[in-house]
Amino acid sequence: MSEVLVVYYSLDGDVRHVAKALAQGLGADWMELELVRPHPERGFMKYFKGGFLAATGATPPLRPLAHKAANYDVVFVGTPVWNSRPAPAVRTFLKGADFAGKKVAFFACYGGSEGKTFRILDALVRGAQVIGHIGFTRPLKNDREQCAADIVRWAKELVTG
What we know:
By secondary structure, the protein is α/β, with parallel strands linked by helices. The protein has helices spanning 14-26, 44-56, 88-96, 117-124, 144-160, and strands spanning 4-8, 29-32, 74-82, 85-86, 103-110, 129-137. It is globular and about 45 Å long. The protein starts with a strand and ends with a helix.
């Protein structure tokens, strides 16, 4: 199997759940993106600031990364959907990584729909071959085991097929 990396940002835990199931199911390396200045976790500012930053295309600084995407053949990137867009931390990662000649697949977790998320993500990985997208509606509140099984099955098909 190719060298595989799973990269994700998660504020409420949905994306973290799916990402860890994916990394474990593929035996892949993984890393969670962390902001230098953490995002508010509750209250009005959580939603207001998150939606505003996502809508404006903000790229807040990240803490040092444990892995470089350039060292992998396939990179899976996971994000929550904020205001119909990817989380700013994921945007920062994608803008700073070298995806030339890499295969990239995206997964997202959301309350409503993915909105513009996948279209935006695709545009941020120039030079990469985007091999797939998958989304999940509130995995921690719905069927978490089914979501975990679904992402592993989907990813194995992408990596081996």
